[in-house]
Amino acid sequence: MNIRGRLIPAAALTAVTALGLGTLTGCSGSGTAAAHDGRLDVIASFYPMSFLAERIGGDHVHVTSLTTPGQEPHDLEISPKQIVAIDDADAVLYLRDLQPSVDAAVAQSSVKTKIDAAALTTLESHGNEVGGHAAAHDTHQGEESAGKDPHIWLDPVRYAQVARGVGKALERADPKHAADYRKNTATLVKQLNELDQRFRTGLAHTESKVFITTHAAFGYLAERYGLTEEAINGLDPDSEPSVARVTDLERMAKADHVSTVFYETLVSDKTAKTIATDAHLQTDVLDPIEGITDKSRGTDYFSVQNANLKALQQALGAK
Questions:
Q1: Element at 56 (helix H, strand E)
Q2: Beta-bridge mates of residue 210
Q3: Is beta strand 133-134 parallel, antiparallel or unpaired with respect to 129-130?
Q4: How big is the CA angle at 263 (ends 261 and 264), to the nearest 5 degrees?
Q5: What is the pLDDT of residues 260-270, one digit of tens each?
């Protein structure tokens, strides 16, 4: 979806072809280690996928993420080592159209179990029209043509749908431990349902229903809980907003009693703070949970989502 993630570099593919998969297997760093200890070797594209694999797979899986902590997942460029790791794995869990280089590597690989999270729930269009308000039109051409918002994990209900699909896929890939996968999936889905209820209750009565973010990552969350997300940069966190868009946001903030401009941990807060200063607004963090770092307000998906809920409650004036 985001064209900043590029296709597999030609040099990387050439290196793999020249050296041969067998030559590189020893340095894959994931498949070989897991294969020796009997666990299912799962390659995950980025944190929300690795979290699902680890929670559902438990002791029966060895999970390796293609995206390192602190790395903006859209910017991932697949290395020859990672191409080999995907090919050697028992399963790969990814989100189609978020990281084009991953999509290409998976399509070219011979990995038996390919789990596309985008196929396990419904995707909608956000970014050009976010929560019913006109958002920025300075999105990349690739985003406009793809049209679908990939940030499904920020909606606990959609994330639970993906979790169920991942659980069934792991059952098929490793039937011997199917009962454990079913149990772990049920536990995770229950926790996601409880998180959904916390959001529903916590955001049911607020003074405002509008919040401003640096980019349109929270369209599904806003839609789920009756809020309106106004994004500075559309679906691309690194694009620069137009002067007209900034003026529109400042005018809208006054009309809709917006108190806060949210920024995120993996992207510069410069634009958010500039707009907040000009409009006499506060700033705070709303984390899209694309990765966990020492700057995150929590150590895993649930703790960061709980922090997001508290931030929204404060910004929106929860009663």
A1: helix 47-57
A2: 228
A3: antiparallel
A4: 160
A5: 999 987 777 78
**Cβ atoms of 234 and 138 closer than 8 Å:** yes
Q: Are 217 and 264 in contact (CB under 8 A)?
A: yes
Would you state the structure tokens that stand for residue 313, as one six-digit string? 């409650």
User: Measuring CA to CA, which residue among 34, 45, 2, 54 is closest to residue 302?
Assistant: 54
CB 156 within 8 A of CB 181: no
Cβ atoms of 85 and 138 within 8 Å: the answer is no
Do 10 and 152 meet the contact criterion of CB atoms below 8 Å apart? no
C-alpha distances in Å from residue 178, one per residue of 29, 34, 57, 120, 271 = 26, 18, 10, 19, 48
Q: Residue 276 — pLDDT band, cuts 50, 70, 90?
A: confident
Q: Are 124 and 131 in contact (CB under 8 A)?
A: no
* Cβ 238 vs Cβ 256: under 8 Å: no
CA 213 to chain centre: 15
Q: What is the DSSP letter of 151?
A: -
CA dihedral 304, 306, 307, 311 (to 10 degrees): 140
pTM: 0.82
Secondary structure class of 231 (helix, strand, coil): strand
